Amino acid sequence: MKHAPIPIRTAVAASVAALGLLAGHAGAQSMADVQKAAQARGLSTADLLAAAKTYTPSGMKDEFVIFSSGGHSGQVHVIGVPSMRLIRTIAVFTPEPWQGWGYGVGNDVLAQGNVAGKPNLWGDTHHPALSETNGDYDGEWLFINDKVNSRVAVIDLRDFETKQILKNPLTVSNHGLCVTPNTEYVVESSQYGVPFGWEYATMDKYKETHRGCVIFWKFDRKQGRIVPGESFALELPPYWQDIVDAGKLASDGFIFINSLNTELATGGVQDKKPPFEAGVSRNATDLLHIVDWKKAEAVFRAGGAKEQFGFPVIPIETSIAEGLLYLTPEPRSPHGVDVAPRGDFIVVAGKLDPHVTVYSAEKIKRAIANKTYSGSDDYGIPILEFDAVVEARVEVGLGPLHTQFGSDGYAYTSLFLDSAIARWTLGGEYGKGTPEPDWTLVHKTPVQYNVGHLGAVHGDTVNPLGRYLVSFNKWSVDRFLHPGPLLAQNFQLIDISGQGANMPVIYDMPIGFGEPHYAQIIRADLLKPWSIYPEVGWDPHKQRIDPMAPKKGMERVTREGSTVEVWMTVVRSQFNPDHVKVKQGDTVIWRMTSLERAVDAVHGFAVPGYNIAVSLEPGETVTVEFIADTPGVFPYYCSEFCSALHLEMMGYLMVEPN
Ligand code: RUQ
Ligand code: CUA
User: Fold this and answer.
1) Ligand 1: distance of its center to the CA of 431 in Å?
2) Ligand 1 atom closest to Cα of 452?
3) Which ligand lies nearest the alpha carbon of 606?
């Protein structure tokens, strides 16, 4: 964001006065000091105002929290708003040593994500979905998809740990993820058409052999797990299904998925056939998928699904016969599909069309009831007549992708090609909130550069809170120091509390760990995380006491045949036992409990040569299993600087050679 140069003296004086910056904590500092510091750094009034809106002094907490996908890192990043401070990374699909994830703990969860029996130890995380109650975030659970391997993970927000990873047996890559308004289902939409079950087929019979799908993963809140046995899928044509969003209120019971490649292009550039980029955008329109999931659930429960690769799939014919699936045209190469807060409008943005297209839930329902079809696709799925379901089209700019909503009747759409965030007005009931006429572009704020998703506070729920919006930009080009040719991405915080053209960028945050895609922003006070585990001997995976957890005074090393069990307790600044002797080739089951109850008393357990790193948070119990195949003397130690005697917190593993 470029600010018009303002004489620094007036600028600083004005902003300082406006902010009343000195009223509270004058101390030894004076207005002249603020003026001097701003002048030395060449800061404008707008800069100082932005700083005042975002600067968060030591000890002050953030009001909102971003849960951002980590892109290639396969993780989730937790960031405070408005400070834009990174607070935590949650290990999900990729091993992470600090949390011990994949180095002693979480190995079984990571193994749930094996693809065709093989470990895939990274993920391309795209779309976080916070659990919802009545269509609003409740702060309890977080789900995230891995696009590259079509997997879904479940994160418990009591301890910010991944509890479950699911690999569906049908498709290979996914894209969209959302939850239904009461988190009955976590909905995963496939991306690229493939033969189900990782079967082989050549491209010449693409139309017959390849398929897309949408998976309804049943979530059981009490267990905190997705129940695969109660989950089902809908077979879809091999278009490239993309983003998915759940209807709510006026559109409750539906989900909306957009798609590209309704041309069924199969590429083949090496054989002089049109490349995918041309073939996939030949048609002027693609097809929005409308699924009645409540009806689909009833059909599944009544036995209407067929097992495919061990997973119940409702065939396309059944979906047509039972009225579960409809299509309607959407502008070419659509990308985002976003349901407005009241559920009454569904906003679709086509990358190659400068408009957003707004569909009406009421009109969709009427068109379904009256069978207002313009035809059907090659698979026989009815196509609802475009003019019968569209409410409005708003020209917003070049390369519109995703839309979020404010608290006051404004919608916000990211413009990839324009590198801007468009603010426009919704109509209907929302129109009362804005000074501008319905369905009009109000303002565009430039961003740096090439925004993908955007996120506003509760911006995709029934109750958007406005205030802040974050532009998740793909490229930072000239914004930061260059860390070599691989540039950071740029999260830009935008103040949307004003109206009209008042929506300035107020902070830039470099993201140096992959391309994060989407993020959701939740009120911090809705999160109720534990600061220590509820009781000593707690197993975070089961979220209850582990009866086998080593107890104080019962520390020992036992042997049965060639299996050695270690019962260890951990407390500042001691491992007990601190000598563990085994024989080469023994199976070692090493159980450890942290006896700590203090909030900051975290210990680590690191063993050289055996690829073991464990994080022991207060009260936690962990079991690590390995074969002692390398003989020698291995100092194990605590890997958190936990006390003045941290270096003394160690022990020796002695593996006696055969
Ligand atoms: S999307 S390319 Cu969320 Cu825009 Cu994955
Ligand atoms: Cu415990 Cu260092």
Assistant:
1) 29
2) 4
3) 2
The answer to whether residues 247 and 273 touch, using CB atoms and an 8 Å cutoff, is: no
Residue of 244, 270, 266 lying closest to 255 (CA atoms):
244
Specify whether the CB–CB gap between 643 and 562 falls below 8 A: no
| Cα of 475 from ligand 1 centre, angstroms | 15
Which one-letter amino acid corresponds to residue 263? E
290, 377 contact by CB (below 8 A): no
590-609, pLDDT tens digit by residue? 999 999 999 999 999 999 99
74: left (phi over 0), alpha (psi -120 to 50) or beta: left
Helix (H, G, I), strand (E, B) or coil at 218: strand
Q: Which of 173, 175, 460 to mutate to test the pocket of ligand 1 (most atoms within 8 A of CB)?
A: 175
Taking only the tens place, the pLDDT of each residue in 392-449 is: 999 999 999 999 999 999 999 999 999 999 999 999 999 998 999 999 999 999 999 9
Sorted by sequence, the CB contacts under 8 Å of residue 376 that are 6+ apart come out as 382, 383
The number of beta carbons lying within 10 Å of the beta carbon of residue 441 is 16
Helix or strand or coil: residue 645?
coil
In angstroms, rounded to a whole number, what is the distance separating the alpha carbons of residues 337 and 389?
A: 15
pLDDT band at 4 (very low <50, low <70, confident <90, very high): very low
Question: Pairing relation of β-strands 285-292 and 400-405?
Answer: unpaired
Q: Which residues line ligand 1 (CB under 6 A)?
A: 126-127, 175, 243, 335, 401-402, 452-453, 517-518
**What is the DSSP-derived secondary structure letter of residue 304?**
-
Distance 599 CA to ligand 2 centre (A): 14
- CA 259, CA 242: separation in Å to the nearest integer? 5
Distinct helix (H) and strand (E) counts, the chain: 11, 45
Q: Which residue in this structure is represented by tokens 């180095």?
A: 103
Is 88 exposed, middle or buried, given 0-12, 13-18 or 19+ CB atoms closer than 10 A?
Answer: middle
- Sign of CA pseudo-dihedral 54, 57, 58, 62: negative
* Mean confidence (pLDDT) of the chain: 94
